[in-house]
């Protein structure tokens, strides 16, 4: 088992990464508050892993709420089912919520934990690659609005992240690739050597070799933990983690949530942000080709869907959470391995990027 720490003063917590952690009763004890535990999971994950987690928690009063699976269900109505379950079970302020699943479950459970009786304890037990390398770490929780992704939410840190890498064995290949988008992202924004490593070892990762998977999860969490510890509430450098997301969120919202996986939309978003970085003269043609090749080799799309026009992109991007004083800010690449957040670009260049794909 590998342990990392997200250093946030009194709210410091650990990320535990290893095979079989879901069934280790000792692991939960120190993080659980009181005797009441609500497991929040979904219809895909419950048949696979709910019993395992329930057994590990046999000393506690455990209830579960099973949500439908998919980004299209990250809504106010579905979120409310968590409160119905908590109130039906008469759970009090001393209960603990455990999110067992991917990013959607983690974001909804975390936001419910932030709000239920003004805040209860919360543990992330991520079961997808995307959740293990990204969404379970850092405390961004929330739900979608028809007008924009993750528009309603809170920063609310978990007490622990328990990432059982054995759960990746049952992950569909499409979901594995979607998680890889966020892994590759860390290389683009922060770590050129990791990018080199990914290019060399991608087949081992796609083949789910355990050493390769452990390496990418650990390195991703190290980078994310460092950035979150330095800027928990995204006043500055945390926005780097949003590389590809302004374009990606526009795709997810524009297509209708759930049509594209989040990681797929981010993959295309990274290619579009790299395209703009090249138009600004920061990336060479060869760099841009390298970005697209790595993304495609991970089994991810590199071109936006024709259904979302350049004009629609602009409309959707205008509500991005990084907009400051009415000005759109984007995460671009100064070079491969170094991201930067900037609003200082010629709008015509953004327009050229968006129109490059307009059909
Ligand atoms: O943790 C962060 O900060 C991120 O931006 C990580 C993203 O990969 C993640 O998708 C996040 O949920 C997006 O947040 P948002 O603020 O753009 O909604």
* Series of secondary-structure elements, N-terminal to C-terminal: EEHEHEHEHEHEEEHHHHHHHEEH
The figure for the number of domains is 2
Largest sheet: 7 strands, mixed
Query: Which range best describes the helical content: under 10%, 10-25%, 25-40%, 40-55%, 55-70% or over 70%?
Result: 40-55%
Q: Give the CATH topology of the largest domain.
A: Dehydroquinate synthase-like, alpha domain
User: How many angstroms separate the termini?
Assistant: 49 Å
**Structural class determined from secondary elements:** alpha/beta
List the ions, cofactors and other small molecules found in this model. Answer: the ligand O=C(O)C(=O)C[C@@H](O)[C@H](O)[C@H](O)COP(=O)(O)O
Total strand segments: 11
Shape: globular
The CATH superfamily of the largest domain bears the name Dehydroquinate synthase-like - alpha domain
User: Regions with pLDDT < 50 over 5+ consecutive residues?
Assistant: none
Per DSSP, the total helix count is: 13
Evaluate the radius of gyration.
20 Å
**Overall average residue pLDDT:** 97
């Amino acid at each position: 088992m590998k342990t990392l720490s997200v250093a946030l003063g009194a709210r410091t917590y650990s990320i535990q990464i290893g095979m079989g952690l879901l069934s280790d009763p000792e692991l939960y004890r120190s993080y659980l508050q009181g005797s009441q535990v609500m497991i929040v999971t979904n219809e895909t994950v419950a048949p696979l892993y709910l019993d395992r987690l329930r057994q590990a928690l046999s000393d506690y009063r455990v209830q579960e709420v099973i949500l439908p699976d998919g980004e299209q269900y990250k809504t106010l109505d579905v979120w409310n089912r968590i409160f119905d379950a908590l109130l039906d079970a008469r759970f009090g302020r001393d209960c603990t919520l455990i999110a067992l699943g991917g990013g959607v479950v983690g974001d909804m459970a975390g936001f419910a934990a932030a709000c239920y009786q003004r805040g209860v304890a919360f543990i992330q037990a991520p079961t997808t690659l995307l959740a293990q390398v990204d969404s379970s770490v850092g405390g961004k929780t929330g739900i979608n609005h028809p007008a924009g992704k993750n528009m309603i939410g809170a920063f609310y840190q978990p007490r622990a992240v328990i990432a059982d890498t054995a759960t990746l064995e049952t992950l569909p290949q499409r979901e594995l690739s979607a998680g890889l988008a966020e892994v590759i992202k860390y290389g683009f924004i922060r770590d050129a050597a990791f990018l080199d490593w990914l290019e060399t070892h991608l087949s081992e990762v796609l083949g789910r070799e355990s050493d390769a998977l452990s390496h990418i999860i650990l390195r991703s969490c190290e980078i994310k933990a460092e950035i979150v510890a330095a800027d928990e509430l995204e006043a500055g450098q945390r926005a780097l983690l949003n590389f590809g997301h302004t374009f990606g969120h526009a795709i997810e919202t524009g297509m209708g949530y759930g049509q594209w996986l989040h990681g797929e939309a981010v993959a295309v978003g990274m290619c579009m942000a790299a395209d703009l970085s090249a138009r600004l003269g920061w990336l060479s043609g060869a760099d841009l080709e390298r970005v697209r090749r790595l993304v495609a080799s991970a089994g991810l799309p590199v071109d936006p869907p024709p259904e979302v026009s350049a004009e629609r992109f602009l409309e959707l991007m205008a509500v991005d959470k990084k907009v400051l004083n009415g000005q759109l800010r984007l995460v671009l690449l100064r070079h491969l391995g170094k991201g930067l957040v900037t609003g200082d670009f010629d709008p015509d260049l953004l327009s050229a990027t968006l129109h490059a794909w307009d059909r």
